Amino acid sequence: MRYFALPDQLNAYFGSLYIFTETAEHYSDVTRADVPQLRFMLESHGDYHFHDGTVAPTPEICLLGPTLGATRFELRGPGRVVGISLLPAGWIALHGGDASILTDRVQDMGDRPGYRDLLDKLRAAEGAEEMATLCWAFLAERLVALPESTWRLLEAVDGWLMGEGSPRIETLADMTGLSPRQLARLTNKYYGCSPKLLARKYRALRCSARIALDHESWQELCEDGRFYDQSHFIREIKHFIGLTPHQLQTEPTAVAQLTLLRRSLGGDVAVINRFS
Q1: Does residue 212 surpass a pLDDT of 90?
Q2: Would you say 122 and 72 are in contact if contact means Cβ atoms under 8 Å apart?
Q3: Residue 121: its pLDDT value, please?
Q4: pTM for the complete prediction?
């Protein structure tokens, strides 16, 4: 897995670009709950197994909606995948609909103008840098201007998610001046779920990074993160990450390790982007 930090003009819309390769005849792993992903299958094909039991084949050009639990994927044959993670503004630019409709689901983007042409160019590209350059141009053409009120809302929600150990809805309501009902409608539209579920998801993402990368004690994180008890902490991490806290410490899977390394992009991206 190789990550690329995005050019400044794309940084508010997309989290990162990555190129994933594997050479096995059959490959399976688990990815954590995440933001939407646009993926171009240069080689191989497979399936997504979502946490609710739904199984979906992977289109060659796949828009994976926001995921609210760990997702297992399978690839049949050696594979190469170019992926781009979408922040809410990027979701608006590439899809435009209610994100909650595509939560834990996939959409085939092969019939959208320009997408299949990009897939062909990526397959013919001579190296990773050329692939990244092709993607930058493709994404830049699709950016849309957002109202200032939308930018302010997205900044408030992102700051809320990253600013508290266990984000409280009351805090977000105070920050935005919106009612819980209004916030639920807007976070479903832009993030794919209610504020409460969104807070749980990002609490788990932050805790998993601190366990696996910072080597912090998960027992201490459990006490600091407003979890009911250790059993609750373990269930939350397992649900959203696909591994127990102990597994994150001692035997994280290859994809879990590589995904967590997004955070190593550091100052090149906004804080929220390091988890996307």
Answers
A1: no
A2: no
A3: 98
A4: 0.90
- Residue 221: what are its φ and ψ, rounded to 5°? -60, -35
Question: Which residues have C-beta within 8 Å of that of residue 2, sequence separation ≥ 6?
Answer: 18, 19, 128
How far is Cα 60 from Cα 224, in angstroms, rounded to an integer? Answer: 43
Q: What is the pLDDT of residue 241?
A: 93
Longest dimension (CA), the chain: 53
Across the chain, where does the E strand assignment appear? 2-4, 14-22, 26-31, 37-49, 55-57, 61-64, 71-86, 106-108
Bridge partners, 56 (sequence order):
48
Element spanning 162, H or E: helix 148-163
SS3 of 130, please?
helix
pLDDT-based confidence at 270, cuts 50/70/90?
very low
Tokens describing residue 159? 């700051």
pLDDT for the residue numbered 213 = 78
